[in-house]
Amino acid sequence: MTTAQVINPATEQVVARVELVGEAETDAAIERARRAGVAWREVAPGDRARLLRRFAEAVEADLEALAQLEVANSGHTIGNARWEAGNVRDVLHYSAGMPERLLGNQIPVAGGVDVTFHEPLGVVGVIVPWNFPMPIAAWGFGPALAAGNTVVLKPAELTPLTAIRLGELALEAGLPEHVFQVLPGKGSVVGQRFVTHPAVRKVVFTGSTEVGTQIMAGCARQVKRVTLELGGKSANIVFADADLARAAATAPYGVFDNAGQDCCARSRILVQRSVFDKFLELLEPAVRGVKVGDPAHEDTEMGPLISAAHRERVAAFIEPSTKVAFTGERPDGPGFWYPPTVVLPDAPTDRVLTEEVFGPVVAVLPFEDEADAVRIANDTEYGLSGSIWTSDVGRALRVSRAVEAGNLSVNSHSSVRYWTPFGGFKQSGLGRELGPDAARAFTETKNVFIATQ
Ligand code: NAP
Ligand code: MG
To answer: How many angstroms separate the CA atoms of 17 and 11, rounded?
Structure first.
């Protein structure tokens, strides 16, 4: 077995060594999951619900330890990490409501009774990126388990620690062995095997568009089900009639949260030209005020980037010709730090406007009127989220309907609420996670006709 070092991105110190699973072990785990699924799908809905609640309670009991582990592994601020562990608990509680509510239809037909069932798929493979190791994992495994599937989960090589701990907590909570297995390893080995192994019936992937398209193509060979969450280039649209002070004060948190390593980051701020200068004046102190530093510190608002390689990738977006309006702070010393950075792009083709930076870099640009704002917002292959700031409710609704994105917020920057569906238009992804239909995405609909004559 090969081992990988896990690095704390705020200190560059090794925090753990993790054994990486190879192809043969992945195959063995998938086979165990397939066998465990035979009994798991027969567990009575109420009992499956109870086990998921116990899993949620085990996460709650371990919440502070999970959060501290995420701070050490991923450099997330302790405030964010507590929210993330709490989100796993909440998604599990929400999922616990699903087995008993996985309702089919009774459809009026001639000559008999017609009913539909939502059957589990079998083994589900969940591939998780490094930016939100806990929540993104739970959005897959919670509803998948609730629907009667077994789950194999591959965390990102950079951030496996909390996923490994969640696997232990599932067992401690009483989930049967092999119903939920965590397999740390390489994407090209473990993740790829989820795609090619015929017993894996669905792959849930969150990560880059590049790998996502390969996964979709690979799954096509077996007509394998797939859900993709592939990042974004979301617009934060600020109209002249908005509460400008609030829009400017919150804009940094809409993009710099998690150091910008967020698929929902509002990395393009579109401001109506008549208030453009005023907005920038208000934005500058807000950006300079973002507290960047030791993520373990209670009032830190932004930590480091995940790795040295990723910091290089982010830094490459700022070319010598790039107009940087202003930057925020960054600590000295070890750690993969990058300051909050506000740029004024020259042309619509600038990379900083067309590509996902996945770091604390935001582009601010002017628009003329509502139609122009919608045109610019939609001038991207992505379509995940976005914000609209205005005091005109009619405009808020018109623009919400016109922007091609899966998750919009008006006078707010929230994207992910576990009660509501989450996912992207266009190349931001395929399918939806969370929300009232979350378990359905892990089932096949079966229609049964029973003759009465
Ligand atoms: P990535 O390569 O897409 O990795 C995401 C996950 O997929 C990781 O678990 C990775 O495993 C796995 N993976 C990689 N290659 C695979 C393959 N051939 N088959 C199956 N699984 C595979 O993302 P990245 O390289 O970490 O980040 C690159 C860029 O992607 C970022 O800068 C950002 O723009 C975007 N991104 C978006 C999101 C999002 O939330 N939508 C998340 C992360 C990254 P390993 O652990 O071995 O890499
Ligand atoms: Mg990669």
So the answer is: 16
Quote the CA–CA distance of 377 and 270 in Å, as a whole number: 8
Write the pLDDT tens digit of every residue in 273-323. 999 999 999 999 999 999 999 999 999 999 999 999 999 999 999 999 999
Q: Indicate whether 191 pLDDT > 80.
A: yes
Q: Which of 208, 216, 407 to mutate to test the pocket of ligand 1 (most atoms within 8 A of CB)?
A: 208
Q: Which atom of ligand 1 is nearest to the CA of 128?
A: 9
**With 80 as the cut, is the pLDDT of residue 1 above it?**
no
268-285 pLDDT, tens per residue? 999 999 999 999 999 999
Query: Whose atoms come closest to the Cα of 230: which ligand?
Result: 1
Quickly list H helices, 62-146.
Answer: 63-74, 78-96, 133-146
Q: Which of 19, 168, 172, 229 is catalytic?
A: 229
Return residue ranges of the chain for CATH 3.40.605.10. 2-230+427-451
Query: What residue's CA is closest to ligand 1, atom 12?
Result: 187
C-alpha 81/C-alpha 295 separation (Å) is 9
Residues of the chain with CATH 3.40.309.10: 235-417
User: Yes or no: is domain 235-417 CATH 1.10.10.10?
Assistant: no
Mark whether 229 is an active-site residue.
yes
